[in-house]
Specification:
The structure is a single chain. The chain is α/β, with parallel strands linked by helices. The chain has eight helices and 14 strands. It is globular. The protein starts with 9 loop residues before the first helix and ends with a strand. The structure holds zinc ion. Zinc ion (ZN) binds next to loops.
C-alpha cells in the first residue's frame, strides 16, 4: 500500500471501493422463510438474466421483473485505480444520455452503500423507471439531497423480508471492505437526521453504512455484495445459489465469506473493472480478479466473469 499525494491509501482505496458484508442474527422465522423458498426454488426455476453495466451495476431480470443493483453508468473520471488515487474534489455528474442507452425499466433498485461509484445515477434512474429504491437512512438522505423522488424511497436497516410482485428481497446489514496497514476505506461517515446539503464532490458521498441483499427471483437465490467485506454473524449458514462477489479487501476475506455461507454453486465477479475505462469497451481488470477466481475455485464454486454490457442467464 502506498499513500498518494492526496493522502489517500492507494491499494486501500481500490480495495476500499471494491469490497461487502452483514450484521444481525437471523431469527427462526426468517430461516424458515428461506428454507421454504429454497425448496420452492428447486421446483420452479425460471430463467434469470444478469446483465453487467460495470462496477456493481447489475440488471437482474426474470420475465417482466427487473431489479437493479447500485446502477452507476455515468463513469466520470476519478483516478481511483491510478497511482495517485481519486481526487476527493472530483465533481459528481450524472448523464441521462448515457443512462438512457441501457436502462429501460426497473421495479426495484437495491442501494448497497453511498460511495460515488454506486449512488449518483440512482435519482435519475428512479425517476425514469418509478422503481422502489431500498437503502438505509444515510443512503436515502443523500438521495434526497440529490433530488431523488422521495415517495419512491424505502428505508431499510437489515432484517427486512420484502415481497414484491415477481421477487422477494431480504435485507442484511453489511460492512464495507477495508484495506491497508490501518484497515481503512474511502470517505467513511453517515448522514442521519436532516437531509444534508446537495453532494457536489465524490468526498460528499460518504459510505453511509453498507447493506447486502438476497434477491429471490425465478426461484434463484442471489446474494448481492457491493464490496469484498462481509459480516459473518449475519451471513452464517445462509443458503443461496449465486453470490455477486467483489475482489479486494483484507487478505482471505472471500475465502472466509465462502466458508461462512452454505456451499455456493456459482460466484459471479462484480466490481472488478477499472471504472475510469469506458463502459462500451471490454472491462479492464483493476487487479483483483485472479485472487477472486482462486477463492471461488478453492471453495468448489463455479466462477463466472461477465464482460461489460454482456449477459449471463441461469
Ligand atoms: Zn465503496
Amino acid at each position: 500500500m502506498t499513500v498518494s499525494r492526496r493522502g489517500v491509501l492507494m491499494g486501500a482505496t481500490a480495495a476500499a471501493i471494491g469490497g461487502a458484508g452483514v450484521v444481525g442474527v437471523r431469527g427462526a422465522g426468517q430461516a424458515t422463510a428461506q428454507q421454504a423458498e429454497a425448496q420452492q426454488a428447486g421446483a420452479e426455476r425460471e430463467p434469470v438474466e444478469f446483465t453487467w453495466w460495470g462496477n456493481h451495476a447489475w440488471q437482474i431480470r426474470c420475465g417482466k421483473s427487473v431489479v437493479l443493483t447500485d446502477p452507476w453508468l455515468t463513469r466520470f473520471h476519478t483516478g481511483t485505480y491510478s497511482a495517485e488515487g481519486a481526487d476527493p474534489a472530483t465533481r459528481i455528474v450524472s448523464k441521462p444520455a448515457v443512462i438512457d442507452r441501457y436502462v429501460t425499466t426497473a421495479d426495484a433498485i437495491l442501494v448497497h452503500h453511498a460511495h460515488y461509484d454506486h449512488l449518483p445515477d440512482v435519482p435519475y434512474i428512479a425517476r425514469k423507471t418509478k422503481a422502489t429504491v431500498l437503502g438505509n437512512e444515510t443512503h436515502l438522505n443523500l438521495l434526497r439531497a440529490l433530488r431523488a423522488p422521495s415517495d419512491q424511497l424505502s428505508q431499510v436497516t437489515g432484517g427486512e423480508y420484502l415481497p414484491f410482485e415477481g421477487f422477494t428481497v431480504e435485507v442484511y446489514k453489511s460492512l464495507h471492505s477495508c484495506g491497508g496497514k490501518r484497515h481503512q476505506f474511502a470517505y467513511p461517515g453517515t448522514r442521519p437526521g436532516a437531509v444534508p446539503p446537495k453532494p457536489r464532490t465524490i468526498a460528499d458521498l460518504v459510505e453511509g453504512g453498507t447493506l447486502a441483499y438476497v434477491l429471490t427471483i425465478g426461484g434463484l437465490r442471489i446474494l448481492s455484495l457491493s464490496t469484498a467485506g462481509f459480516d459473518p454473524g449475519a451471513l452464517r449458514d445462509l443458503q443461496v445459489d449465486v453470490v455477486l462477489a467483489a475482489p479486494g479487501g483484507e487478505p482471505g476475506v472471500t475465502d472466509r465469506l465462502l466458508a461462512t455461507l452454505k456451499p455456493v454453486k456459482t460466484v459471479i465477479a462484480t466490481h472488478w473493472d477499472d471504472f475510469d475505462q469506458p463502459l462500451d469497451k471490454p472491462a479492464v481488470d483493476w487487479g483483483g480478479l485472479t485472487k477472486l477466481r482462486a477463492s471461488a475455485t478453492a471453495a468448489g464454486s463455479e466462477f463466472v466473469v461477465v464482460d461489460h454490457l454482456k449477459s449471463v442467464t441461469f
